[in-house]
Design goal:
Blueprint: H1 4-13, E1 19-21, H2 28-37, E2 43-45, H3 49-63, E3 67-72, H4 76-87, E4 96-101, H5 112-128, E5 131-134, H6 139-153, E6 156-161, H7 184-195, E7 199-202, H8 206-217, E8 225-227, H9 235-244, E9 250-255, H10 256-261, H11 264-272, E10 277-283, E11 286-287, E12 293-294, H12 302-309, E13 313-317, H13 320-332, E14 336-341, H14 357-369
Parallel strand pairs: 1-2, 1-3, 3-4, 4-6, 5-6, 7-8, 7-9, 9-10, 10-14, 13-14
Antiparallel strand pairs: 11-12
């Protein structure tokens, strides 16, 4: 395994001192190390991976220094446009070192949403003309090759990270940002009870896993829920599409990381959503599903943003009573939104859906057709 500190120090010693990206569970140890050892100006957790490429490009334009962009391979889709139309040698020819976590690597068991992405990870890079190496124990040789090539030809290169590549890093403990008094799962249990047989579209990561387990806990079916196991940032758009096609209430259960990733979609929802579209964002100020790295959601006014986007009513809740009161009001109103503040944390034994995505889809569609 690679020592994260030695890896980081290599980058710094080779004048790579600007980091940006979206956290990934396979890069958790490295991301924690970068967070501890870089100041906030030189380690920006971006809204999405495409933004990170733009940040690295801008830093190069002002300093002449190559930036480092870290991401999960699911984020390759978000970097295609800026890589091809900005950083490519046929356009502005900008050197960038991409560090990509390889979820769904062929032959390695992983969740359904990572399988296809894992199969095409290297092919996508090859199609885009991005030279890569898969991280080996001789990481200095890998980095020497990629960094030298990127600087020589002024183009992006990529280092692919397999599961378990980095050894455990003991991060510096910081005071956690506590946004509310309830855990997300505790809040979700209250919400699902209040919603009854309304339709639910839940975001990727632990939130959908908790929705599934809460249904199991209360011996309920899963036909009311569409669990968005992948597609981070697109939950509100999926829910909007569902709401347009049915008269039943559709509740989008989003997270702050997902909200930030494609925030423009909420403007589209606010303007176009029918009255049966209801939006709830869980705000714990963290990318908790991939390691707990901070978001900026504790430093922006999400309620004001949603109101500006066109939601007729917006609420905030931190307690059980506030959640119940808000949902009852939202049920009687048109398109409305709730900012739910929770504290970080989840059960160590939190499971994953035991149904497949296809089974989930079929069950959800059958439920909609029943009415």
């Amino acid at each position: 395994m690679i020592d994260s500190v030695k890896f980081y120090e290599y980058l710094i010693n080779h004048d790579l001192d600007f980091f940006t990206g979206v956290p990934d569970s396979l890069l958790k140890e490295l991301c924690s190390c970068i967070k501890d050892k870089s100041d906030q100006k030189h380690n920006i957790i971006a809204a999405n991976e495409g933004n990170a490429v733009g940040l690295a490009a801008g830093y190069y334009l002002s300093t002449g220094k190559m930036g480092v962009v870290y991401l999960q391979n699911s984020g390759e889709g978000n970097i295609v446009n800026p890589l091809m139309s900005l950083a490519d040698p046929k356009v502005y020819s900008i050197p960038i070192l991409l560090i990509i976590g390889w979820r769904g690597e062929p032959g390695i068991r992983d969740e359904p949403q990572h399988i296809k992405q894992g199969e095409v990870t290297l092919k996508l890079l090859e199609t885009m003309g991005v030279e890569y190496r898969i991280l080996s124990d001789d990481f200095e040789n890998d980095l020497n090759y990629l960094v030298d090539l990127a600087k020589k030809d002024n183009k992006p290169t990529a280092l692919i990270i397999r599961k378990g590549s980095f050894s455990k890093y003991l991060s510096i403990k910081e005071e956690e940002t506590v946004m509310g008094e309830l855990l997300r799962e505790e809040a979700l249990e209250i919400i699902l009870k209040e919603l009854g047989n309304d339709l639910v579209v839940s975001t990727t990561g632990k939130e959908s896993r908790e929705v599934f387990e809460l249904r199991e806990k209360h011996y309920q079916g899963h036909q009311f829920d569409f669990l968005t196991v992948g597609s981070m940032g697109h939950t509100s758009s999926i829910a909007l599409g569902v709401a347009i096609g049915t008269k039943r209430n559709v509740w989008c259960l989003d997270g702050d990381g997902s909200f930030l990733m494609h925030m423009g979609s909420l403007a589209i929802a606010g303007v176009n959503a029918p009255c049966n579209f209801k939006y709830i964002i869980n705000n714990n100020a963290a990318h908790e599903s991939v390691g707990g790295q901070p978001t900026v959601s504790d430093r922006i006014d999400i309620k004001a943003i949603l109101k500006a986007c066109g939601f007729s009513s917006t609420y905030e809740a931190r307690t059980k009573q506030e959640i119940c009161d808000s949902i009852q009001k939202m049920k009687k109103e048109g398109k409305s939104a709730l900012v739910l503040y929770t504290k970080q944390g989840s059960r160590a034994n939190l499971g994953r859906p035991t149904t497949t995505p296809i089974e989930n889809k079929i069950s959800f569609m059958k439920e909609i057709k029943r009415h």
